[in-house]
Write a structure and sequence with these properties.
The complex is a heterodimer of chains A (169) and B (292). Chain A folds into two domains: 76 residues, Beta-grasp domain (Ubiquitin-like (UB roll)); 77 residues, DNA polymerase, domain 1 (Orthogonal Bundle). Helices cover 34% and strands 16% of the residues of chain A. Chain A contains six helices and five strands, in the order ββαβββααααα. Chain A has a five-stranded mixed beta sheet, sandwiched between helices. The termini of chain A are far apart. The model of chain A has no long low-confidence stretch (mean pLDDT 93). Chain B has eleven helices and twelve strands. A five-stranded antiparallel beta sheet of chain B has the order 4-5-8-6-7. Chain B has a four-stranded antiparallel beta sheet with strand order 9-10-11-12, sandwiched between helices. In chain B, a hairpin with a 6-residue loop joins β11 and β12. The longest helix of chain B has 23 residues. Chain B starts with 6 loop residues before the first strand and ends in a 5-residue tail after the last helix. Chains A and B meet through β4 of A and β1, α2 and α6 of B.
């Protein structure tokens, strides 16, 4: 099967990979690049465990081909913490017990990080709408919402939130 | 779930896209947002030999009013429709439609052109575009062709696009005086297709007599369809609660739902009645100048 060279940056690093046209982006991220923080859940575009940032926007990486990432900037959950310091969303999940089994957590955190970058002070309803494409089967939404609200408070308590909310582009 | 093998081609212009379509015919599929195509390929319901990626074709993503129409580029993402203040305030029916499609992550990729070209009676834009009386612009070897939305869905999962044509733009007549629309969808959970949904667009005269009405139905007919008897009932009639109730019963009668895991045919038909009543009521309120 013919392989195609695909160039993109992921978590700030330029990469050049060989991908079959039909390879899904999530498989390229996990298997070719070894970044297994991005999860494969339903594989049917429903669960959001595979959520990454594509040029800063949260998308489901199981519903894109790796070849479509050519020239794009990707961020995975591995790109959220900088220098070993958790970003506010990650810290919120830690502090508010925003997970039980943890399977949905990477996708939840990618969606939440993108939300807090675009909406200054989301209401609880806006938070719940934003994560409506990310399924948690431990029924942990209450603490997930609290975790995101924790991150929001933390960002507003800090003089330069843009500098704190790393991840993305 | 791994799709069958295919050859991937990136198109950089409309002419190149049309050339590739002419060369590969029905072996080729256009990849825009991919939110319907890629899941279908993973399930091997679709096994195209060639994928033509049009995400690199510039100039296909825009929302603007000109020549008395709202013109939307086919590659406009659903999330862009949702965020557009022109859409939210000028075309609330379209805002209501975009924001109930799939989920926010899917809407960051999904395109309005793909939603229509896929011609799925369960998709949300077809009913709304039928209600709005939209025109589809198709680009082919001989340039642009305008297709009235009423002729765009000829049969099950088929569009009026020729194999060498690509949908490039959707044109919606600008709302006139005392015009209002609404889209109301009932779904089991976020991300699911509608159990049923109803799109209504109507115009009232100064005395609350309905002078134009179009009603589109989602996922309760084999092809995206209008409830023409309900429309005809409303036109020329003064809008009262009784008129809305009678029109809603006609719309329910015109629907042809199938029993499936989303509910029985009887349940869905009655849901059409309820949703049609609510959508007509909201459209009337907007036509009178209210926001709801």
């Amino acid at each position: 099967m013919a392989l195609r060279t695909v160039n993109f940056t992921i978590n700030g690093e330029a990469k050049s990979v060989q991908a079959e046209s039909r390879q899904l982006l999530v498989h390229c991220i996990r298997e070719t690049l070894g970044l297994t923080g991005t999860h494969v859940g339903c594989e049917t575009s429903h669960c959001g465990a595979c959520t990454i940032h594509l040029d800063g926007e949260p998308v489901k990486s199981c519903t894109m081909f790796a070849v479509q990432a050519e020239g794009k900037s990707l961020t995975t959950v591995e790109g959220l913490a900088v220098g070993g310091t958790l970003n506010p969303v990650q810290e919120g999940f830690w502090e508010e017990h925003g997970l039980q089994c943890g399977f949905c957590t990477p996708g939840m955190m990618m969606t939440a990080t993108a939300l807090l970058r675009t909406v200054n002070e989301p209401t609880e309803t806006e938070i719940r709408e934003a994560i409506s494409g990310n399924l948690c089967r431990c029924t942990g939404y209450v603490n997930i919402v609290k975790a995101i609200q924790y991150a929001q408070r933390k960002m507003h308590a800090t003089p330069a939130p843009e500098a704190v909310l790393q991840g993305g582009d | 779930m791994i799709p069958a093998s295919f050859e991937y081609v990136v198109a950089h212009s409309l002419d190149e896209t049309v050339g590739l379509l002419a060369k590969h015919g029905s072996d080729a599929k256009i990849l825009s947002g991919g939110m319907s195509l890629i899941p279908a390929m993973k399930l091997r319901l679709a096994q195209p030999a060639f994928i033509i990626d049009v995400n690199g074709v510039s100039g296909l993503a825009y929302i603007r009013e000109e020549h008395g129409e709202l013109r939307i580029g086919a590659m406009t993402r659903e999330s862009a429709l949702e965020r557009s203040s022109l859409v939210k305030h000028g075309y609330p029916i379209l805002f209501e439609t975009a924001r109930v499609i799939a989920d926010p992550l899917v809407r960051n990729r999904a395109t309005i052109g793909g939603n229509l070209a896929h011609a799925d009676p369960a998709n949300d834009h077809p009913a709304t575009m039928l209600a709005l009386g939209a025109t589809i612009v198709a680009h082919g070897p001989n340039g642009d062709r305008l297709i009235p939305i009423d002729e765009f869905f000829p049969s099950f999962f088929a569009s009026a696009l020729e194999p060498d044509e690509i949908l490039t733009e959707i044109r919606i007549p600008a709302p006139g005086v005392r015009n209002g629309g609404a889209y109301i969808k009932f779904e089991r959970k976020v991300g699911d297709y509608a159990i049923a949904a109803v799109a209504v667009n109507l115009t009232l005269d100064a005395h609350d007599t309905c002078i134009a009405a179009r009603i589109g139905l989602t996922n309760v007919t084999d092809v995206p369809a209008r409830a023409t008897r309900a429309e005809a009932f409303l036109v020329g009639r003064r809008i009262t609660d009784q008129a809305i109730a009678d029109a809603s019963r006609l719309a329910a009668h015109e629907s042809d739902p199938k029993s499936d895991l989303r509910g029985s045919a009887e349940y869905k038909r009655d849901l059409v009645r309820v949703l049609a009543g609510r959508a007509i009521g909201r459209a009337v309120s907007r036509a009178r100048g209210g926001s709801h």
